[in-house]
């Protein structure tokens, strides 16, 4: 039996196990009493409602308000634990949550059954124990700490310049928006954690099962902010460490990794919808299809155009007046500014390097889900980082992309 067949059977075998673990985790999160969570949210509501971090970068406050409202007693009506966990009722944004904090129970309630809401496994127990302000500080510390760990490892394994090339894109894009709110920090921790794992794999086999699990975890934790970033960042680290081990990463292996990750991600999204259809009703499938179509080309006053490049433009524009010029200069102009740098690009193209595909894939993702990428450009811009990372490696003349004998 081939490796591909073995890993496929293994992925199929662990799917029910992961489903049980995922569902049990959400049930446990919803079983946490809401009273202490509400008390800790009320201690510093100004922090929760803030639209910008201390460094001025934008925070997705409305999504965070949606997230922390999930699991609260919003209606006062009795529901079973399973119904609450599957339906995942929420208030839609910060303004309704602010009114809810005053004691009102008349705000519109949304059913968010399309997502697993795995972030509640972390958020609800933590918020039952500490104020939201402290929780945000903890998330930021963990997010920065795990990234420093990865950068240190990359610097030790390659060169300090390679670590700088890794870090630079995250300074330019709004990584802060992912590191301080739990609805996005879980995505960040997953992406960086996967990269750390892949940087220390000892097996020469393609990590198909690992990418399947990462895909499943992406479906579990991510709020559709950065699935492409999670996959491509992990794939970039895998490819660089393959080259470090004198194993040229192959296109077939990259495609297989993409398939396994994609099956894990899409498969567990569909599993959640199937669970919702069983517990609630079959109309959830229609809602899911409508929501998916809206994220691709849904008409809204927030999106002016769907011409090719509109989503990329929106994500660059969301970098604002300071960071957009820096990004263009540092990651588009300078990496092509000298003959030596252009020669590195030509070599990557001549070798048909998988790094090029990994860098481009998230940009295509943004264009496919153009509606979503334009509306949430301040946060989906994290998908630009694989391309910026490769440009920074070229700019730094990193040995990570140098030819090996």
How does the SSE layout of this entry go?
Elements: H1 3-31, H2 34-43, H3 45-49, H4 61-69, H5 81-87, E1 89-91, H6 94-101, E2 109-111, H7 120-129, H8 132-157, H9 160-172, H10 176-179, H11 182-198, H12 208-221, H13 227-244, H14 251-279, H15 283-297, H16 310-317, H17 320-333, H18 339-350, H19 354-368, H20 370-375, H21 377-380, H22 385-395
Antiparallel strand pairs: 1-2
Helix pairs in contact: 1-5, 1-7, 1-12, 1-14, 2-7, 5-14, 8-9, 8-11, 9-22, 11-12, 11-13, 12-13, 12-14, 13-19, 14-15, 17-22, 19-22
Describe this structure in words.
The chain contains 22 helices and 2 strands. The chain has 405 residues and is mainly α. It has one domain (3-401).
- Strand order within the widest sheet? 1-2
List low-pLDDT spans: none
Number of domains: 1
Can you give the mean pLDDT?
91
Oligomeric state: single chain
| Cα radius of gyration in angstroms | 21 Å
Query: What structural category arises from helix and sheet content?
Result: mainly alpha
Q: Please estimate the helix content.
A: over 70%
Q: Can you count the helices? A: 22
Globally, the shape reads globular
The largest pleated sheet is described as:
2 strands, antiparallel
The sequence of SSEs as H and E is HHHHHEHEHHHHHHHHHHHHHHHH
Indicate the proportion of strand residues: under 5%
| DSSP E strands, number | 2
N- to C-terminal distance: 32 Å
Task: Give a nutshell description of this structure.
With 405 residues, the chain is mostly helical. It is built from 22 helices and 2 strands. α19 runs antiparallel to α22.
